[in-house]
Design brief:
This protein is of the alpha/beta class. The protein has 2 domains: 129 residues, Rossmann fold; 65 residues, Arc Repressor Mutant, subunit A (Orthogonal Bundle). It is built from 11 helices and 5 strands; from the N terminus they run βαβαβαβαβααααααα. It has a 5-stranded parallel β-sheet with strand order 2-1-3-4-5, sandwiched between helices. The radius of gyration is 20 Å and the shape is elongated. 21% of the residues are buried.
């Protein structure tokens, strides 16, 4: 059964990247059709005539950067689904995009399977916590590790801190000395730039970790 065509608007100043993206997606979805715009300011000027179902929006562009374009678009067209795509993976950039209304955030080096899955998820979601949608359960550690350089052991300890276990309890569970556990906790706080355990719990809860 033939589906209604889905209009995807790619906004990126790199022609080769945009063309490659379109070619890859067409291989898997013959019901997608595409428009390419290479500047953020042109996107804002022409959005009324394009009516896309989804926008793949780069961050760093001439004229108007993607974050500002995102903010302007969501104010006037909150129904349009927007996935930010970027080479920037720092937490500040990601959180800024999500807080301004982005439906998801992907790095440009993501695989085609994850890109397709994210597009499908965003297109078909009607509501929900956008942080929870972005931080898929099996992607949580990967995200924390990439952005904050958290090790697997530190990640384990963070999970026990979240449920309120003491350093001694954590040490017993993981067969560590109390000194080693305390050192891991200090490293976690330094990497996340947090001052106390309350801030750590808040960080874990706010980011659905």
């Amino acid at each position: 059964m033939k589906h209604n065509p889905i209009h995807i608007l790619i906004v990126d100043d790199h022609q080769l990247f945009a063309e490659g993206l379109m070619a890859l997606l067409k291989q898997h979805h013959d019901d997608y059709f595409f428009t390419h715009i290479h500047r953020g300011d042109l996107l804002i000027k022409s959005i009324g005539n394009l009516t896309p179902h989804l926008i793949l929006l780069d961050i760093k562009m001439p004229g108007l950067d993607g974050i500002k374009a995102l903010e302007l678009l969501k104010k006037e067209n909150s129904h349009i689904k927007i996935i930010m795509i970027s080479t920037f993976s720092d937490a500040e950039t990601i959180n800024k995009c999500l807080s301004k209304g982005a439906d998801a955030f992907l790095l440009k080096n993501v695989g085609i399977t994850e890109l397709r899955n994210t597009i499908d998820k965003v297109l078909h979601q009607n509501s929900g916590n956008k942080y929870a949608d972005f931080f898929d359960k099996d992607k949580q550690y990967e995200w924390v590790s990439t952005i904050y350089k958290i090790t697997k052991r530190e990640w384990e300890i963070m999970q026990y801190i979240k449920i309120g276990e003491t350093n001694q309890q954590i040490s017993n569970r993981l067969n560590l000395s109390i000194y080693t556990t305390e050192t891991h906790r200090k490293n976690i706080m330094q990497k996340l730039k947090l001052k106390n355990p309350t801030e750590l719990i808040k960080f874990l809860l706010e980011n659905q970790l």
